[in-house]
Design brief:
It is built from nine helices and seven strands; from the N terminus they run ααβαβααββαβααββα. It is of the alpha/beta class. It has one domain (about 5-230): Vaccinia Virus protein VP39 (Rossmann fold, 3-Layer(aba) Sandwich). A seven-stranded mixed beta sheet has the order 3-2-1-4-5-7-6, sandwiched between helices. The relative contact order is 0.15.
């Protein structure tokens, strides 16, 4: 086994935040293979229905779009990325869905979700929570664009597992069940279900590990006063 240098580890951490250049394209493929099980479990947890409008935050190259579209009929998909390289790759890989106007990939600032209130039936994000600049504000943004009774799935690797990884530094926001539940408690979601899963995967440095991850399913309340005023 080749041990990555400190420079390589620092570069990996930066690429995980926002993939760039040819290295970013390569990482997109690696990330999909590493996260495939988490993505599929998250899609299942969404309980997608016909005609749902779905937002994915941080889809990478979105190699999994066909899996999502098999869940129900007449779906519309929207992907938001902070990496232009990943937007370009997702557009290339999913060119047919993009040209058919059932999928749209956009770059955004990672802070404000550029859609109106109550726009999406389902929201999905896998392994992005570590990089949320202001977690409370960003979860509020997710709540804002989710329709009443809509479902959001936030999936991430357990903080206790992540903290010892060489590419994880103090800029990563790590979570366990209690910490995430506390974050969610400050919002108006009416339910929170967190499932713990485990899988054997090859990590970002090429080592096979048993990785624990959490699939958190949130549902928005039907209506509350400030939403009526905003609608």
């Amino acid at each position: 086994m080749v041990v990555p240098s400190n420079t390589a580890i620092l570069n990996l951490a930066e690429q995980l935040r926002c993939p760039k250049g040819e290295a970013g394209k390569d990482l997109g493929s690696i990330m999909y293979e590493s996260n495939k099980g988490m993505i599929i479990d998250s899609i299942t947890a969404l309980r997608i229905k016909d005609k749902n409008r779905i937002l994915e935050i941080g889809p990478g190259s979105c190699t999994h779009l066909n899996v999502l579209f098999r869940q129900a009929a007449n779906l519309r998909y929207f992907g938001l990325e902070i990496s232009q390289v990943m937007v370009d790759e997702a557009n290339k890989i999913n060119c047919k869905s993009v040209s058919d106007r059932i999928a749209l990939f956009l770059r955004y600032d990672g802070i404000k979700i550029p859609y109106v209130h109550n726009f999406f039936d389902r929201i999905l994000t896998v392994n992005t929570i570590y990089f949320w600049q202001d977690p409370k504000a960003f979860l509020c943004e997710i709540y804002r664009v989710l329709k009443p009774d809509g479902i959001c799935v936030v999936t991430f690797v357990e903080g206790s597992f992540m903290k010892d990884k060489p590419f994880v530094d103090e800029s990563f926001g790590l979570y366990d069940i209690a910490k995430f539940a506390n974050l969610v408690s400050e919002q108006h979601f009416k339910s929170l279900d967190i499932q713990t899963r485990n899988e054997d995967v090859k990590d970002k440095t090429g080592v096979v590990v048993n990785r624990p991850f959490l699939v958190a399913t949130l549902q928005k309340v039907a209506k509350y006063k400030s939403e009526k005023e905003d609608s």
